[in-house]
Amino acid sequence: MAVMKKVPPRLVLLTGFGPFPGVERNASGLLVRKLAAAAKRRFEVYRFETAILATDWDTGPAKLAAIQTSRSHLLALHFGVSRQARGFVIETVGRNERRDAEDAAGCRPQSSCISEDGPARLFTPLPATGIVARLTVGGLAATTSDDAGGYLCNAIFYQSLAHCSAQNGASRAGFIHIPADLGEPGAELSMDDGVRGGLEILAACLDQRGRVGT
Q1: The pTM is what?
Q2: What pLDDT digit, counting tens, does each position of 61-83 carry?
Q3: Which residues pair with 77 in a beta bridge?
Q4: 3-class DSSP state for residue 22?
Q5: What is the number of other CB atoms lying within 10 angstroms of the CB of residue 153?
Q6: What is the rounded distance in angstroms from the CA atom of residue 125 to the CA atom of residue 145?
Q7: Residue closest to 163 by CA, chosen among 78, 101, 55, 39
């Protein structure tokens, strides 16, 4: 009798950030843990891994690189906070640049670019407009953006897109900005809203129909 091969679970990486100057409570780090727990229940055929990245020009990207080179991810979805965000901001472009700004360790980037020989811009393969439509139908504010800033959010996004590009499409990456006050008393979005929105984003990304266009 033929032995059936066990299909390995498909791995999804969810990352958030730790504190940084001016943001002692980083909602993205809190969100990804709650989102992963909810996602395990909703998407049983997938396995979810979380990582909280230091908002540090050296250790944050280094930790992501170590994770992504040690195991294969179908999807890497990164979350970060923005004081300007009023809902979910689906980033579409990673830029090969770093702003001259202090990180959580009080250090500044050693170079103005992320990759000396990398392209100026990399684009997410995720269905950004479809994600926005899905969130909007669910009553959650959402928009797309082509500028993830020049801080660690953009650095992680660009690095992850570059890694996925090197995998020839075997993995995909996206970046979501959420309000810095997510889950705080009086905030427009509760943490439950954040988890609900995160689940819809995952559904759009993991749906085969959501893989065409942005």
Answers
A1: 0.91
A2: 999 999 999 999 999 999 999 99
A3: 14, 174
A4: coil
A5: 23
A6: 14
A7: 78
